[in-house]
Amino acid sequence: MAVENKNISYRIYLVAFMIFMMAIFVAVKLTNIQWVEGDYYRKLAKERTVKNFVIPANKGNVYSADGSLLATSIPNYTIRFDAMAPKKEHFDDNVKALSDSLSVMLGKPSGFYQHELRKARSNKNRYYLVARKLSYTEYMRIKSFPLFNLGAYKGGVITEQKTVREHPIGKIAERTIGYERFDETGKETRVGIEGAFGEYINGKDGKRLMQKIAKNQWKPISDNNEIEPRDGYDIISTIDVYIQDIAHHALLKQLEYYQADHGCVVVMETKTGEVKAISNLGRAESGSYYETINYAVAESHEPGSTFKLVDLIALLDDEKVDTSKVYDSKGGDITYRGRHVRDSHKGGYGKISLARGFEVSSNTVMVQAVYENYKDNPEEFVNRLNGLGLNKPLGLPFKGEGKPRIPQPSEKSWSAISLPWMAFGYGVSMTPLQTLTLYNAVANNGEMVKPKFVREIKEWNKVIKKFDKEVINPKICSDEALAKIKAVLGNVVKKGTGSKLYSKDFSMAGKTGTAQVDYHKGDGEMYYASSFVGFFPADEPKYSCVVVVHKPNVAAGYYGADVAGPVFKRIAQKIFTDVPSTNEIKTLNVKITHQEKNYAEYYNKAQKKENIVPNVKGMTGMDAIALLENFGMKVKVKGSGKVKQQSIQPGQRFNKNQIITIELS
Q1: In whole angstroms, what is the distance from residue 213 CA to residue 223 CA?
Q2: Residue 589: which residues within 8 A CB-CB, separation 6 or more?
Q3: Which of 110, 168, 255, 424 could form a disulfide with 99 if both were Cys (CB 3.0 to 4.6 A apart)?
């Protein structure tokens, strides 16, 4: 018995010792947590319950020159369903009505939604996808459906919102207006106007300290370091929606007819360099055409005969020859160092003047004229090209501008055939927009201006930055040379290679181009880039335009006058013949009659009744701000678009400098 009691005592001592050791361990651990690792655990606890949230800035809008909205940010909603949130009686009572409502809105049978919702509940699915990509109106509608109108906790409706960029005019000019995309690594790419002017349009995100109060629920807490977001500024572009629509569809029609690989068109205002329309269309595997690459800006290629304008500028301004100088086309085939220069017209043109050689685009005539006058000093000709800025990019704000190439006599690659080949547009490389800039300089009495895509950057009615005309070259050649060049370009359309485009209703001037391009990598086929570039009206040019179509179906045609020329003519015809009065809006400050009338009525009414708040509902944000500030009120703005709510109702009295908040849709 004594032995047994002794064993029990040992066990008690052992248990007591273990408890004692555990107590010591706990005490040490608590001391360590409190004093040694206390800062770390307190920081960890704070990070899990208090953290900074990014407050996204609202992105600015992109507008056309006439005030049309080209790009804007709108909320996009995804609706999901927590099938376990509603009580059984609520679910059973409302599932049929909910399914009926979803069927009417989303298009699938009511039975489909009943089956899916019941299946989600039986599977205890707490994140069932109901619909995505809903507008704000659709989101508000679906929230009012049976069961969902009980809210997140009782009805199980889960709402996810994100902001998406939309182009109200569709895919037209999408590549130039721009967008942002993310690749598989999450790297962001911005292109076009939005990419080039991102520092203005994107704004700056804010931050706010928030504390966790429940699962996935956070509340803001006071913090001196809180930063309010700064919304992005609006971009006022030079694009004219009317001209853009004409240019886009004229190009698309021609690409489809000739089954071409891709093409571009640019319309520019002569005096200012403002790009009024730009379309870049490439063919997908399906055969449809999309805006994918900004060919007008990025694609540098051999221009072919449109480059012959440089020949005329150099020859006339350097006073080497006159347009009346006669050359023998020599049967349409001449040879330099064993390589042939041929005319497209078999047998050549006989003996013709330099002017006529340009009008019919004779390679043999133009090459002879350049070679005879510059063969002993090719630097003189090349320096003329360099002086026109053709050897360097235009310096546009967009990423990926194509690099031109003008061979230089000092380069190792220069050879005996470099000069004659340059004379008819081979061995050189230019972008369509660079070619247009040169022709526009001729139309603009010799002043070469840089193409401009943005007029100004605004914050509501306040101009943040204005972009003025930028002159590249104040005078590309003498007035005497310009007069002769304009006359010859006009004759190209009247009686030259562009005679099919002639119309007695309106005058045009320009040059056709057909360049053989090495797309094929040795497959034996011939591929061409067909182009037309010029200006209209011919006497007092208002617009210049370039059209380039790559790889048309040769069986249908490939000459510049046939493929690219009709696009040019269609644009000029639409602007000046069909509806000549629709393109008169030149500034955002133009008076719009019904808006001016409303504005005056509001203002006069308020003047009669001192300090009476006007009704600004339905007005554009800019107009509403200007009106309210003229009354002496301070305006806070939420959203973008037209006014849908105002914090102080119409007819109420207000004090000077009183704050009024307007909510825009």
Answers
A1: 17
A2: none
A3: 110
Which of 479, 535, 472 shows the shortest CA–CA distance to 509?
Answer: 535
Q: Closest Cα partner for 385 from 369, 365, 370? A: 370
* Structure-block tokens of residue 571: 């644009």
Neighbours of 201 (CB within 10 A): 24
Q: Which two tokens stand for residue 340?
A: 């042939």
Q: How do strand 289-290 and strand 509-516 relate by DSSP bridges?
A: unpaired
pTM for the model stands at 0.74
Query: In one letter, which amino acid is 577?
Result: T
- Alpha carbon distance 175, 614 (integer Å): 41
- Residue 389: how many other CB atoms lie within 10 Å: 20
Helix spans in 107-189 (H) = 110-122, 136-143, 151-155, 174-177
Tell me what pLDDT residue 224 has: 64
Angle, alpha carbons 347-335-329 (nearest 5°): 35
| CB environment 534-573: b (16+ within 10 A), e (fewer) | bbbebeebbbbbbbbbbbbeeeeebbbbbbbbbbbbbbbb
pLDDT digits (tens, 9 = 90+) for 48-64: 567 777 777 788 889 99
For 459-592, where are the alpha helices, taking DSSP H only?
Answer: 479-495, 560-563, 565-573
Query: Residue 455: which residues within 8 A CB-CB, separation 6 or more?
Result: 65, 236, 237, 238, 274, 466, 467
Sequence-distant (6+) residues with CB within 8 A of 307 are: 422, 424, 425, 428, 430, 435, 513
466 close to 456: Cβ distance less than 8 angstroms: yes
Tell me if 366 sits within 8 A of 311, measured CB to CB: yes
Highest mean pLDDT among 30-44, 50-64, 416-430: 416-430
The number of C-alpha atoms within 13 Å of 129 and in the hemisphere containing its C-beta is 6
Per the listing, tokens 């002639």 go with 502
Q: Name the region of 151 (left: φ>0; alpha: ψ -120 to 50; beta: rest).
A: left
Among 130-144, 300-314, 445-459, 577-591, the least confident range = 577-591
Give the residue-averaged pLDDT of 344-364.
95
Give the side-chain half-sphere CA count within 13 A for 204.
Answer: 5
pLDDT, position 249 = 93
Mean pLDDT over residues 359-375, rounded? Answer: 96
In this structure, of 432-446, 556-570, 608-622, the range with the lowest mean pLDDT score is 608-622
* 505 and 298 Cβ atoms separated by less than 8 Å: no
Asked if 385 and 406 count as a contact pair (C-beta separation under 8 A), the reply is yes
Contact 252, 570 (CB under 8 A): no
| DSSP secondary structure, 242-284, as one string | HHHHHHHHHHHHHHHHHT-SEEEEEEEETTT-BEEEEEEEEE-
Residue 443 φ/ψ, nearest 5 degrees: -65, -30
- DSSP string of 438-480, one letter each residue: HHHHHHTTT-EE--B-EEEEEETTEEEEE----EEES-SS-HH
- 156 vs 584: CA distance, rounded Å: 55
Cβ atoms of residues 499 and 493 within 8 Å: yes
Distance of alpha carbon 354 from alpha carbon 361, whole angstroms? 10
Q: Which residue has the higher pLDDT, 41 or 573?
A: 573
pLDDT, tens digit, 9 for 90 and up, residues 123-161:
999 889 999 988 888 989 999 999 999 988 899 998 888
Calpha distance 379→244 (Å, rounded) = 41
Please count the CA atoms within 13 angstroms of the CA of 660 that sit on its side-chain side.
Answer: 32
Q: Round to whole Å and give the CA distance between 229 and 22.
A: 54
Name the phi and psi angles at 327, rounded to 5: -130, 150
